[in-house]
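Protein chain data
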Amino acid sequence: MNVVIIEDEKLAADALADIVAKLRPDTKILSSPGSIMEAVKWLELNQESDLIFCDIHLSDGNSFEIFRKVDVKCPVIFTTAYNQYAIEAFKVNSIDYLLKPIMAEDVAKALKKYESLQQRNLTKGYGDLQEIMQQSQPKQLGARNRFLVKKGQALITVPGEEAACFLAEEGVVFLFTFEGKRFIINQTLDQLEAQLDDRKFFRVNRKFIINIEAVEEIVPYFKGRLSLKVKPPLEMELVVSTYRANAFKQWLDL
C-alpha cells in the first residue's frame, strides 16, 4: 500500500508514519508534504498513492484547498484537532476523520475501514466507491447545550454556557461551572468531546476539557508545553502537552 501523509508538523507526521508502519509493515510512505503548495505540486505529478492521511490545518491554510486544485482519486483520512470540519471532509473522498492526538487504535480502525471499502469495491467503479463511502459516514449530531448532572440524590440540568470545564478524576467525571460549583456527570470525556461544540470546548489532555471562556492566561512551559490559568481556579496544574500546544493556540485563534 502506498501512503501519502500531508502534515505540517514533522513530529506529528513521523509519529503517524510510525503507527502506520507498525500496523501495516508493507506500507510505503511516498511523501510527506507540509503545506498546500507542496501537496498540490506533488499530487499533480504523482497519482500512484492508494491512501492519503491529511491534516486540515496546514502552515499555509486549510487543506481542503488542495482538493479544489487537484483531482485526487484515492480515499483520504483527515487528521485534525477540530471536529467541526467533519461534514466538509466527507465531501472530499474522505473515509474517516481522526481527532488529534492520534492513537494507534484509531488508525487501525481507519485502515480496516479503508480495506473493507476497497474489498467491496473490487468489482465496482470509483463512482460506486464514492457512494459506498457516503453511505458509511456517521450522522452528525448537534452540539450539547445542557447537561444532566447529580446534585445530592437529585438530578438537575446545567446550561451549556455555564460549563467552564470537565475533569476526569479516579474514574469520575466532574462538570465545573463558572461559579465554581462542581457536579458529577454520568458520561466519559470521550463521549462529551464528541458531543461538545469544539469552537467553544477543547480537549487539553486525557483528563481535561476546557471552555474557551474559562481560559484566562497562557504561560509558556518548558519543552514547548503551555501552562494555563483558568476560571474558576483549580487546585491542580493544568498543562497543555507539546503535541497539543499548536492545536490549542490555533483553536484560541479561530
User: Anything to note?
Assistant: The CA atoms of residues 57 and 203 lie 17 Å apart. The longest strand covers residues 163-169. The chain has two domains: 2-135, 146-252. Residues 104-120 form the longest helix (17 residues).
